[in-house]
């Protein structure tokens, strides 16, 4: 996994969030390197788009070395998603403890999506398993759904807090808005892999506008 550093500017402090399972300093064992490159392949090609051979060639090791840690591909991918969910929980809990506003917390997720796109990952973790989901191994589906539930629950809580505090303004239920926000981001992330970063930026801008959260984006940027 590539190191993902997200900066959220607050009036009194800059929040530095490590949004992946480990930093570059921690990518120092074969097991961690397997996770690192496996996730890169997953988010660029999807579940069926890579094999252990792709990872072994990248690392200069034999397939047997990967099977030693992860006997089956489903073990590797399930472990990836478990790690993503754990890191997400740690990051969001830290923001809550530090008193981040609802807007600051939501910006964290937007920055995460943009940073991943900039690192060449054309599909977000949740979106990487949507195609052919029903045919995936049960343990992979379980970890994917746990991550999806965690993200939606977090979105709902942040939107609820923002609505109560006057940071956001919308009329539908919190969960409905959480679902529609995530759906928009997932679609924009994949379309941006063809149309460019501006597609994702505009989608984020429109999400904010629909929440009554005004950011500056020029007419040129909106129409690019």
Describe it for me?
The protein has 224 residues and is mainly alpha-helical. It has one domain: Tetracycline Repressor, domain 2 (Orthogonal Bundle), CATH 1.10.357. Helices cover 63% and strands 4% of the residues. The protein has a two-stranded antiparallel ribbon with strand order 1-2. A hairpin with a 4-residue loop joins strand 1 and strand 2. Helix 2 crosses helix 3 and helix 5 packs across helix 6. The protein is elongated, with a radius of gyration of 18 Å. The N terminus and C terminus are likely disordered.
Summary of the model, kept short:
The chain is mainly α. The chain is built from nine helices and two strands.
Q: What is the alpha-carbon Rg in Å?
A: 18 Å
Which regions contain 5 or more consecutive residues with pLDDT less than 50? 1-27, 217-222
Q: State the shape.
A: elongated
Domain count: the total is: 1
**Would you count the extended β strands for me?**
2
Strand and helix order: EEHHHHHHHHH
Question: What labels would you give this structure?
Answer:
single chain, 224 residues, mainly alpha, Tetracycline Repressor, domain 2, two-stranded antiparallel sheet, 9 helices
């Amino acid at each position: 996994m590539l190191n993902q550093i997200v900066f959220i500017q607050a009036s009194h402090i800059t929040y530095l969030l490590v949004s992946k399972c480990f930093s570059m300093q921690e990518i120092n064992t074969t097991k961690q390197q397997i996770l690192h490159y496996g996730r890169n392949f997953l988010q660029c090609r999807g579940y069926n788009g890579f094999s252990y051979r792709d990872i072994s060639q990248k690392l200069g090791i034999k397939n047997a070395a990967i099977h030693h840690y992860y006997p089956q591909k489903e073990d590797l991918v399930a472990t990836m998603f478990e790690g993503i969910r754990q890191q997400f929980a740690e990051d969001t809990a830290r923001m809550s403890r530090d008193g981040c506003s609802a807007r600051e917390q939501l910006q964290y997720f937007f920055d995460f999506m943009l940073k991943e796109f900039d690192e060449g990952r054309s599909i977000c973790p949740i979106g990487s398993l949507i195609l052919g989901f029903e045919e995936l191994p049960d343990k992979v589906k379980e970890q994917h759904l746990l991550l999806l539930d965690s993200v939606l629950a977090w979105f709902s809580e942040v939107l609820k807090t923002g609505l109560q505090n006057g940071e956001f303004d919308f009329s539908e239920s919190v969960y409905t808005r959480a679902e529609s926000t995530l759906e928009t981001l997932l679609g924009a992330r994949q379309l941006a892999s063809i149309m460019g970063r501006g597609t994702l930026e505009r989608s984020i801008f429109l999400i904010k506008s629909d929440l009554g959260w005004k950011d500056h984006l020029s007419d040129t940027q909106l129409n690019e």
